[in-house]
Amino acid sequence: MDEIWKDLVNDLDGSFPTVVQNMGTKIYWGLRRMSNGHQEAEDLTQETFIRAYSALSEYNRSRIRELRVEPWLWTIALNLGRNSLRDRSRRPTFVELEDSAVTDPEMVDGASWDRRLESLNSHQRTAVVLRHVVGLGTGDIAEATGRPEGTVKADIHRGLTKLRQAMENEHEH
Amino acid sequence: MSIESELSGLIGDLPDGVTEGVALGTGLADGYDIYESVVGSVAVTFNPMGVSSVDVVDELIGERFSERFGRGLIRAEAPSKWKRRIPDAIEAGRAGVVPVDLRSVTPFQAQVLNVTATIPKGEVRSYAWLAHEVDRPGATRAAGSVMARNPIPLIIPCHRVVRADGHIGNYSLGGPHNKTELLTHEGASPDWLEGLASRHVRVQGNFTTRVFCHPTCHVIRDSQAADIVDFHNTRQASEAGYEACEVCRPV
């Protein structure tokens, strides 16, 4: 990731698609498990990178160098998730040629995990997904969510406890 | 398996549309869609700034586009804000509310293209007229090159610029026969233009109003046929006491 960040400083247009490739998967699946359906998660993921690109094109080199990629992208993504999407009528939209139906890459147990995650409050759900699905450290989560690291750790702990309970309940029934 | 490791397995594939959607939304790639025109199907390319090009439809369109503009090309829908207006812009030969993206051309080229965009449907002007309009009277040949490289033919109506001798001249979008087709469709028939040229008629005056115009200018076309006087050039018209039309500014 650090290498790519260096490329972003030198050649934003050339290296940005690689950032999307590398980070897009995590952003999409993280958002997906934070209670967004396929279409919404896909839209939010696109919008996150479009905003990131437009911000980067205005930042100077030292500001780009100082950025911490993942938490920064997540700050954008979480903010977008909270607010409704801006009017996107000004930009072209992708048309899938072979199949006009939406291609949802959902995994087999996605729905069961969403059911379990629903027992968490939104702070806990965000923290658990960012920590254990996306793989962010608690410091990065604190930066992305704007909450103190101690609170984030507590959210994760309580969230995991609730998930365990939810799974135990499933086995009992 | 622990809950933590189960959660870490919840990352799947990147959905198909993300990469393309980001490329289109950032303008790192343009989108294109196919539209119908008098000269057949054309590919219109666009990005958040506006329509960037109009080209013939074939399998090399992506290659030509990236060679010329340095960006990728993806099949897409135009921004909903103006996509319904693209067919109107093509038919009218006028951008109207559709924004055009002229970042790929030099300021001089943009100036020439903007003047070209003012030529009304059904009328034609010469390369020399373009050069005059941009205050570079010696730049007739340069104006011709700008037309040859017009990135947005049909919508920026370079087909309405013809040679002063009445020949219709070249056309970049699929060749000169398309120019003939378009001019005929718009009511400025090349046969008529060449007929005038063979009689050495460059401008025409109105005997009553004493104003002279380019033969296709709507000001002279709206005149009574009996009032129309032919001239070989603007000097002859001036010497006969005629004033140049302020609408078409003949040269």
Walk across the major sheet of chain B and give the strand order.
Answer: 3-2-1-4
Query: Would you report the number of β strands of chain B?
Result: 10
Order of helices and strands of chain A: HHHHHEHHHH
CATH architecture of the largest domain in chain B: Orthogonal Bundle
Q: List SSEs of chain B in N-to-C order.
A: HHEEEHEHHEHHEHHEEHEHE
Q: Which stretches of chain B of 5+ consecutive residues score pLDDT under 50?
A: none
Strand content of chain A: under 5%
State which percent range the strand residues of chain B make up. 15-25%
Structural class of chain B: alpha/beta
Query: In the CATH hierarchy, what is the class of the largest domain in chain A?
Result: Mainly Alpha
Nearest-integer average pLDDT of chain B: 95
Let me know the largest β-sheet of chain B.
Answer: 4 strands, mixed
Average predicted local confidence, pLDDT of chain A:
88
Helical residue percent of chain B? 25-40%
Reconstruct the topology from this structure.
The complex is a heterodimer of chains A (173) and B (251).
Chain A: H1 2-10, H2 12-33, H3 38-58, H4 61-66, H5 69-82, E1 93-94, H6 110-117, H7 122-134, H8 138-145, H9 149-172
Helix pairs in contact in A: 1-2, 2-3, 2-7, 3-5, 5-8, 7-9, 8-9
Chain B: H1 3-8, H2 16-26, E1 29-37, E2 40-47, E3 50-56, H3 61-69, E4 72-77, H4 86-92, H5 107-116, E5 125-126, H6 127-133, H7 140-148, E6 161-162, H8 176-186, H9 190-198, E7 203-206, E8 211-213, H10 218-221, E9 228-231, H11 234-239, E10 243-244
Parallel strand pairs in B: 1-4, 5-6, 8-10
Antiparallel strand pairs in B: 1-2, 2-3, 7-8, 7-9
